[in-house]
Specification:
It is a single chain. This protein is α+β, with helices and mostly antiparallel strands and about 400 residues long. Helix content is about 35%, strand content about 25%. It is built from nine helices and 17 strands. The strands form four sheets. The protein has a five-stranded mixed beta sheet with strand order 3-2-1-4-8, covered by helices on one side. Strand 10 and strand 11 form a beta hairpin. Helix 6 runs parallel beside helix 7. The chain is elongated and about 120 Å long. One of its GO terms (cellular component) is Gram-negative-bacterium-type cell wall. InterPro entries: ATPase_NBD (IPR043129), GspL_cyto_dom (IPR024230), T2SS_protein-GspL (IPR007812). It holds the Pfam family T2SSL.
């Protein structure tokens, strides 16, 4: 998944502004990085490619609020509620500030809210869009999440020390005078420093520091669960959903971390295909065996049948022929049908016309009501016959002859 992370400049954007960027192909390490005008920024390629805007630490303030019950992301009155909760904490007019709520926030629970200058953010995003670099996500350089970590960033003349954790984000000058404001930290707390300020960081805090380029930090920051593209900066819900879906599928299909899962899915499909084919073969063999048994029974019982096409039908015909030859009674005979009808019809009712053909008796003139027809059908069914109405005519037949 190709991702371009663009660090927004802290000041106003002009045509001469150069943007810091990091291009990554795997979402973990930068493949290219540097500074360039907006029109010369690289363009991410491939399925799931996206451009992420990174807000520098000095451009974002963080505020802890407790959301009222019933309030959650997507609620129409969320923006107004956040303005009311932060009215005394914001230094600027709420209308001039862009707000973004912590992902997964729930009503009745504490949540973090990010705030930044709305006009500055809009100008930066419009400049990128005008250069053909439309932003799909907005993330903070540092967010209140994860365990405590220290980062020394910037240039020696304007170095900044950032302490970030799920307790908040604190940015201070990288100087000994600011150490008293830092949260208490164990000896093994991760400490990262950009090469330009590494010597100063070791001088201020004489502890082991890990070198980390700004581009490396930006790529890792883009993996945060935070997305500040909310409210009037949010893309359409459909476009965002499709983008997340494409990004997720690309991660599944191409990421090395998902390789065992992909192999597992392929093996699962193969096992299912083999299993289904084996089951189909077994069922087909069982069905062929049953057909052969029926055909063998027909040939053994009626040796004169040489070609078996439909064993059950041929056997029924042969049995009917045998009955006619031997004079044996059949439920399909006229006298059997008349006897069953005489038992089932209401007393005092007699048909005015009878017609017998192909094992079916048609009796007319009974004038049965709906209830009487149901009763007649029930009694005939108990005797092994079916009954149905064809207008004023009652049709009676042996059930095995339907």
């Amino acid at each position: 998944m190709s991702t371009l992370v663009v660090s927004l400049p802290a000041g106003p954007v002009t045509g001469a502004t150069e943007w810091g960027f990091a291009l990554t192909e795997d979402g973990r390490t930068p493949a290219d990085h540097g500074r360039a005008p907006a029109a010369l920024l690289p363009v991410p390629r491939g399925a799931g490619a996206e451009i992420v805007a990174l807000l520098p630490v000095e451009a974002v303030s963080w505020h802890r609020v407790e959301l009222p019950k019933g309030l959650a992301p997507g609620t129409p009155r969320l923006r107004a509620a956040l303005e009311g909760l932060l009215e005394e904490q914001l230094l600027d007019d709420p209308d001039a500030v862009h707000l973004a709520l912590e992902p997964g926030a729930r009503g009745g629970a504490p949540a973090w809210v990010a705030a930044c200058d709305r006009a500055w953010l809009r100008q930066a995003l419009q400049a990128l869009e005008g250069a053909g670099r439309t932003v799909t996500r907005i993330v903070p350089e540092f967010a209140p999440e994860g365990p405590l970590a220290f980062s020394a960033i910037g240039e020696p003349e304007h170095a900044t020390l950032v302490a970030s954790s799920d307790e908040g984000v604190l940015a201070l000058p990288l100087a000994a005078s600011a150490l008293s404001l830092l949260p208490a930290a164990p000896e093994d707390t991760p400490r990262f420093t950009e090469p330009a300020v590494a010597a100063l960081a070791e001088q201020v805090i004489p502890r082991p520091w890990t070198l980390q380029q700004a581009a490396q930090r930006w790529v890792l920051s883009a993996r945060t669960r935070w997305d500040l593209a909310q409210f009037d900066f949010a893309s359409s819900s459909r476009a965002r959903a499709m983008k997340k879906l494409a990004t997720g599928w690309t991660e599944v299909l191409r990421s090395p971390a998902w390789r065992p899962a992909r192999w597992g899915a392929v093996l699962l499909v193969l096992v299912n295909v083999v299993g289904v084919n084996a089951l189909a073969w077994k069922e087909r063999a069982s069905l062929d065996s049953q057909r052969e048994t029926v055909s063998r029974t027909l040939r053994d019982t009626f040796p004169q049948v040489r070609v078996v096409v439909d064993a059950p039908v041929q056997m029924e015909r042969e049995v009917a022929t045998l009955r006619q030859q031997t004079g044996a009674a059949s439920p399909r005979d006229l006298d059997a049908l008349l006897g069953a009808l005489a038992v089932a019809v209401p007393p005092g009712r007699a048909p005015t016309g009878l017609e017998y053909s192909s094992g079916q008796l048609r009796a007319s003139g009974l004038s049965l009501t709906a209830d009487e027809l149901r009763n007649v059908s029930t009694q005939l069914h108990a005797l092994g016959y079916s009954a149905s109405a064809d207008g004023p005519v009652l049709l009676v037949a042996a059930e095995d002859a339907r």
